[in-house]
Amino acid sequence: MPVPRSRVRESEPALFVTAGVLVLFFGVAFLLKYAVDRGLIPIELRLAGAALAGTALLVLGLRTRGARPGFGLALQGGGAIERPRDRGGAA
User: Is the full-model pTM beyond 0.85?
Assistant: First the structure.
């Protein structure tokens, strides 16, 4: 029995949400790198900010996954990408 089209759309991540999370990731990465390179903030604050942002995205994704699965999944993915930055992974 085929799945109704409305059910399929609910479980797919929204394209704009995914693109927005990617833009947010790169924007925050370059902004923090610029601020550290210019001496505006210490490296410790950059690492703490990356950890806080990743954790906030993960928590927000977990809270919204029941009502909007695609949106919640995209936020969780963004949080998972953001978290390695606090361990010196990217940017």
Answer: no
